[in-house]
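Researcher: Re-running this chain for the archive, since the previous output was lost when a drive failed. Same request as before.
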Amino acid sequence: MVKEFAFRSNRRRSTAHTASVFRLLRVPASARTIFSICVVIFLVPLANGVLAQSDATKQKIESLLGLYDVAVTSEQWLGLDADAGALLEAIASDSRQLPSRRMRAFEGMVALRTANANDLLVQAAHAETEPRAVRMAAIRGLSRMLTGARLLAELRPILEKASDAQLRGVAAEVLAQDPAGRAAVLRQARKETPAWRTRFLSGAGAERSMAPSPPRPPISPDAAAPAPKDSPTEPQGVPAPSDAVVGPTETIDLGIINVVSTALSVPVTVTVPQNAISIDFVGVAVSDPTARVVVYHLDSPSGRVYDYASSSSSLMKVQPPTQPGGFSVIVPNTPTVPLGPGAWTIELVATKPTTVSVKVLLKRSPTPSPTLGTINLNLFFVGVPGLSASSAQSDANFQAVINVIRTVYSQVGVTIGSLSYIDVTGSAATMYGDLNESDLGALMRLSNLPGAQANAASIFFVHTITGGVLQGYTILGESAGLPGVPIPGSPQSGLAVAMSDFPAGQVNIGFVCSHELGHWLGLFHTTESGGTTFDPLPDTAQCSAGTYDVNHDGIVTATECSGVDGSNLMFWAADTSVSLGLMTPNQGFVMLRHPLVATSPPYPLAISSITYPVSNTIHLQCVGVPFAVNRIESSPDLGANSFTTLTSISVDGTGAFQYDDTNAGTQRFYRVAYP
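Model: Regenerated C-alpha cells:
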C-alpha cells in the first residue's frame, strides 16, 4: 500500500511556470478554460497579515501540508513557529482553497489549539455551503477539541438532521467514541437504512465488515529482519504452462504452496526463455487471506538479487506488500538488474500460516526494448457526489482528469487504451465512499465486479480517504501495491483516488492518478521525504537531504529539490510551482515491462486460406497475435456493426491456428480479431 499524493500551493508561482504546465499538458485552446480554473485556485492571495509571516514558517507549513505518505503527528505541528497558527487558520477558512488543503489545515489548527480553532471548526461543520469533505474534517477536528456534553451539543443536530447521510455517518463515528454521545448514536442508528446502520454501529465499537489486518513485520526496503530457518522440503518442480494467457503475456501456474512465519517456503522456480522481457511473480493467499505474504529471497540464474534481511545492500529493490492477501514482484524493475534467461526462484514467508497460489506472468516481445505500450483502465465510482459511471463519460471535468493521465504517460510512450466505467453501489458504496485506509484491501477486492474488463488496471474513485476514524488524516491517493497484483479480486488489485477536490482540481487529481498508477505499475518515489532513500533507476536524480534540506527540518520538499527531481511525477510530494509530472526513459522502461501494458507491435492478422472440406463447413487457416486469445468473427454482408464472434482461441508462439465453421451457411465473411 502506498499512501500519498501531496499537492501544495506556492503563491509566488510565476506566469512562466503556468505556461510550462500548459506546455507539458499540451492543453488544446478549447480546453484551457478548464485548466485555468484549477490554476486560479492555487493563485488565491491570502490576507495581508498572513503574507507577513516568515518564509521559513510558510515553508515548514507547506512541507507538512504535503506529507501524504504518513500522518502529520501532533509533535510535527507543535514544532512549528509561533506564527504558524494564523496561516493555518487563513488556509482553513478560505473557501477558495482546495478542500484537501483546508482539511489538513484543520489538523494543524487542532494540534496547535489555535485561538480561533473552535469557532472555525463549528462554523465549517454546520455550514450547508461548505463542501462535504470540509465539513467532515471539521467534525473530526471537533472530536479532538471538545468532549462530553459540549461535543454532543455541537454534533447532535448533524447526527439527527443532516440531509447528507455521509455527514450523519461521520458524526456517528465521532460521537460513538465519547460515552456522552453513544446513546444518541444508537438511537439514530435505528432510523437509518440497513447499510448505514452497519456504518453507524461500526463507529460505536462493533466489528467492521472486514477482518482486522494482522501485525505487520518491517516493510521498509532498508529494514533488516532475522532470517527464518531454511525449509527442509525439496524444491518444487515447475509445471507446464497453463492455457491461461494474457495477450502476449503467458501465465504460468506454479501451484499452491504452504507458507508460514517460522521458515522459508519451498523454492518456487520458473525457467525464463531468451525472448522474455519481464516476469511478474504473483501470489494470492488462499486458505487465510488475512496473512501478509512476503518474498524473502529472489534468485537469478547468476545468483541472489534480493534478500529481505539485507534489502539495503541487495542488487534489486523490492517493496514488500503492506496489504495482506498477496504479493507481486516484477523483474526487471531497473535496467541495472536485467532479466537473464534461465531459472529464477523465489522463497516466501508470511505473518501467519496460509496457502498461496503462485503464478508467473511471463512477457515476451519480438524486440528486447519496446518503446510503445497501451494500458487499459477500469474506472470504479464509489459514492462520489455528482459523479457516476454514466455521467463521467461525458463530464468535461472528469475527462480532463483522464487527459492529464494521457499527457503525462505520453512522455514515455504509454497510451491509455479502452476505458470501462463501473458504479460501486449499495452497502459497498456506503462503507467505502469515504474510505478508511484500513478498508483499502476490501475495496480492491471489488475489482472483479461485472463490467470490468480483463487485463486492465483498476482505479477506484472515492470521495475521501482518511487514516482513521478520529485521527482522520487526509490522503489523496493510495496504490494497494508496489507493484500491484494484476489479478482481479485481490486486496492489491488496484488503487484508490480521493475526489474531494473535484471538479475544481482536475489537474491535481490527474497527477494523483498518474502517480499512484505509476506505483501500481512498479515505480518507486524518485526521492522519499527524508531525502535518504531513492528509487533504483539510474536516470532519476537523487535529492539528498545532506545537500538540499536547506532549512534542516528533516524533509526535502519539491521546492528544495526543484533543480533535481522535484518536477518528476514520482517525487514523494508535489508543489504546483515546481511539479510538472515529468518522467524519465528509465521510468518508461519499468512501465513498459508490466504485464498489463501491451507492447506487442501490430501483427498481420489474416486468414491465410479458406477451404470447404464437407458440406456447410468452412475450414479457416489463420495468423493471429502470438501468446494471445484471438477471435474469429463473421459477417453476412459486411454491414456496419455486422461482425459477431464465432469463437475465441488461445494461440501459441507461432501465431498460427485453424478453425472449422460447421454451420457456415452462405454469403459469410470472416476476419481475425484481437483483443
